[in-house]
Specification:
Elements lengths: L12 H9 L5 E3 L2 E3 L3 H13 L3 H38 L1
Antiparallel strand pairs: 1-2
Amino acid sequence: MLNENEIPFPTTVDDHKHQIRMGRVVTHRKGGRAKGSIRELELIAADLRRGGEINRADEVDREIMAILDKKICRKIIKRSRKEQKMLHIGSC
């Protein structure tokens, strides 16, 4: 049950930064992870480093790398599927 005084979702960038500082980086929406853009995460990591929270900034950096790896893998898979399709069509 929700507390009446508690806001169930972040309303501002400051709230999101606070959640990251407290270790609650991941919020759930429709069963998946709701992520900010890579640039926003880089800014948050820089703010954390300036604030002296190196460990939290490293966690955000790891999340950025995971997002980039996922995007790169998707592009490679998409490209290889297109190539396979073209090879299949060309062999007929």
